[in-house]
Amino acid sequence: MKHLKCAALAAAVLLAHSASAQTCAVSGPGINYPVTRTVDQTDDYHGVKVADPYRWLEDANSDETHAWVEAQNKLTQGYLSQIPGRDAIKTRLTKLWNFERFSVPFKEGGRYFYSRNDGLQNQSVLYTMKNLADVPRMLLDPNTLAADGTVALAGLAVSPNGRYLAYSTAASGSDWNEIKVRDIDSGKDIEDRIQWVKFSNTAWLHDGSGFFYSRYDEPKEATKLADVNYFQKLYFHKIGTPQSADTLVYDRPDHKDWGFGAEVTEDGRFLIISASQGTENKNRVYYKDLSRKDAKVVPLLEDFDASYNFIGNDGMVFWFRTERDAPRGRIISIDTRKPGVLNWKQIVPESSNTMVSASIVNNQLLVDYLSDAHSLVKVYDLKGKPLHDLELPGLGSAGGFGGKRGDTETFYSFTSFTTPTTIYRYDLKANKSSVYRQAKVDFDPAAFETRQEFFTSRDGTRVPMFIVSKKGLKLDGSNPTYLYGYGGFNISLTPSFSVANLAWLEMGGVYVMANLRGGGEYGESWHAAGTKLQKQNVFDDFIGAAEWLIAHKVTSPAKLSIGGGSNGGLLVGAAMTQRPELFAAAIPQVGVLDMLRFHKFTIGWAWTSDYGSSDNADEFKALVKYSPLHNLKKGTCYPATMITTADHDDRVVPAHSFKFAATAQADQAGGAPILIRIDSKAGHGAGKPTTKQIEEVADRWGFLSRALKMDGATETVKAAGQQ
Fold first, then answer.
1. In this structure, is residue 26 part of a structural domain?
2. Residue 234: inside a domain
3. Whether pLDDT at 22 is above 50
4. Out of 276, 374, 684, 705, which one is annotated catalytic?
5. DSSP letters spanning 513-558
6. What is the pLDDT of residues 519-540, one digit of tens each?
7. Considering 307, 566, 627, 657, which one is annotated as catalytic?
8. Is 687 inside a domain boundary?
9. Signal sequence span per UniProt (predicted)?
10. Is 566 marked active-site?
């Protein structure tokens, strides 16, 4: 029986690119796509033969690949440049983007720190001040690190004594970081340089003499953007010494796939080490007593049975937010002198809401929850007694709430789909919030409305989504709609303000965000329901959202587009290959599109916790059924598609998008374009300069305005800009 199943699966895979799965009823003007050479490459997966004719595109450094990229970009830019109104969209985006915005301030070493962007700066600038009433002093301007803004600030940590700033930079969007150290008083860098850092934070000793960080071995220069990342190690760097003298604190050569995060407790006594295995929502916890010179690293939680997020400590007693025996999260304390499970104490129990994070400020627990994908913040005493809720301005997302145990103030941000991010100062003694910084954007929020709807997915699961539009939306099926989703890695999508989406709304578009399984909106069980052999649930949820929008006449297939990035790019690729007739346009951004080989590049192996692996026979059967690359079929009418990627994306390597684009162009039977937009000196998305962001969004909305036949959108955008 097993042999018969494999034979049937093999036949289905081999036929995918030779049989006509759908006869196109729509024809259109042909597009002369660049010729993409095919090779005779076939792999054997557990007895199933799978062709990979564009394998050569995985070599991003070859002259042939460079020529292919150049030809594809020439085609795409030529197409986009002919779209009426694309320039008007860019002009409006530029005007909307030009507003002053701030990060949430934090306090360390007797100083406040925050970042500010004056509007169109490519990168936000870091400032410091000793008192809130002081004139801020610029501490670090990343815009001076590269003329085109392609070097970004990737992370920062201030020493508790307030003397040093350790900051990491990323060039051209790469995940590779370099850590430098700046003397805060002088504003100048000292000589210390740390290289080959990836997926690491920085944790200072309390006396500022050095910090902990995680790194990999030095990669090969030619292949550093594609080679697999294994064997991360935790080091200590002493200020004033070369990186070669750094001390190895902890590594696990017996577990190449373990990664490490470090933090020093507020009292300075303990180093807390979190060991993770890929992206799985579970971790191990170790600690080291820094007050003892020869102290060893001590295992505390080694079962790898749940997530344990360190909140704080009271001497030898550690507090954690965990999903152990609580899929939606709870807070426990563990006495490290008697750490057995039977001795754990529950501080804040699990509730019907999903616990996102917790911090200790003013000797109180500030706990951030999600209630149907929007924020709810509660305050408890340290014994878990509920004190009060923090009143938020509305249906939206709150974040921040950092500080020390003895602080009486904290800062947080609040945003919604139609509320630009506002920074609040919260006085915990008075239980009062006041606006600290408020963004002013050139639009009228009263002209738009947000509603939350719930739909039933294929298996009966109730799934929420947010629908944002101009007020007075007509339910006649004629509204151009952009449906966005993610659905993976326990990541929650919550309401947030975006000038990119605002421009879409002004164009007459409807923006919809679906909270799919695989995310973290309803805790670990919601996440697990969209992983591995259950990953199809995520796509069913997304398709269910589309069908609800059509059935309720918000839109129609001729007016419906879909988008998403990274894991969301996989989502779009799966939806458009499973239900191509349901959508008029699709934009898979930096997507994971080859589900059989994703684990062979950079950090891709870490995603097997969500996806499974083609190395496993059962998981291969599930993967090959939905892998976007392997489910494109000749003779199919695919929606107008613009695939986006970047040459320095070393998170999801561009080969995913290259091979998907080449295959889709060859298989497309209709007249809708299949284009690929390949950005230069850019990566997966983090740290992308403002100018590049505006260009990309203008291309996206311009492409959709043509695909969805948004007549009059240009005039609407121009009118909005003149108000």
1. no
2. no
3. no
4. 684
5. EE--TTSSTT-HHHHHTTSGGGTHHHHHHHHHHHHHHHHTTS--GG
6. 999 999 999 999 999 999 999 9
7. 566
8. yes
9. 1-21
10. yes
